[in-house]
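Suppose you are handed a protein chain with no further information: no name, no annotation, nothing but its sequence. What can you learn? This example shows the usual starting point.
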Amino acid sequence: MSYDDASWRDRFRLDGKVAVVTGASSGLGVAIAQGLAASGASVVIGARRTDMLETTRSLVEDAGGRCIAVETDVTKVDDCDRLVAAAVDELGGCDVLINNAGIGGDYNPATEDPPDHFRHVVDVNLMGSYWMAQAAGRVMPPGSSIVNFSSVMALTTARMPATGYSAAKAGVLGMTRDLAAQWGGRGIRVNAILPGVFLTEATANYSPNYQRKLIDARVPIGRLGDPIEIASTVTFLASDASAYVTGVGIPVDGGVLLL
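A reasonable first move is to predict its three-dimensional structure. Written in C-alpha cells, the prediction is:
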C-alpha cells in the first residue's frame, strides 16, 4: 500500500458506518457526533434532553451526516436496547458505539455521601455504559468499535471528594479490558478515552482566574482542551486507522497524568 493513495486516507474514514453516540445533547457528545458525521458516518444520537438532542441532530446534518435522535436514559436497559434497535432498523446496523453519557455528581465527603447519590453516579457512568455495550455487542459485525469514556479521575484525584465518580470511571477501564478480551475474536475492538478538563458547558462557569490556576497547577500543555480534540481521538479509535488497538485507555488530558 502506498501512503499517498486513497486506501491510506480511507483508513481514517467512516463511510458506510453507523455510529451510536450517547450523552449527545451537550458538551463533548455534540462534538463527537459532528466529528463522526464529518468523517462519513451516519449517526444515531441518544440523551435524556430531547430539545437539546434536536439541536445536535441539526449540527450533525450540517456536518454532512444522516442523523436520528432517540430519547435515551442509559440507566434503563430498555432505552439502551431501543437506541441500538433504532440504528439497526432505520440505518441498517451498528458499527460504532461511543459511550459518552455521564454525570459528575456532587462533591460529598465519603463519610457523608448519601447512598442514593453514590449509586446514581455509578449507575450512569458505569452501568449505563455496560448496558449500551451489551445492546450493541449483540448486533455488531466484525470490524466494529466501542469507545468508552473513562476519565483521568480513574487514575488520579482532583483533590476534592468525588469517590463515586472516580470509582465508576475506574470501573469503566476494567470493563473495557474485559470486553476487549471477550469480543476480540468476533472482531469487535473496545477501547477507552480518559479526558482531562475541556471547554464545555460544564466548565463554562469557571472564571478566567480559576481556569488559569487549574491550568498552572495541573495541565503541562498550558491550556484546557478543545472538544474537537476529543472528537478526533474518538474518530481515530472508531476507524480502521486503529484496527490493531484494543483494550487500552488513552488519556486526552494535556498531560494531567504526568503530574
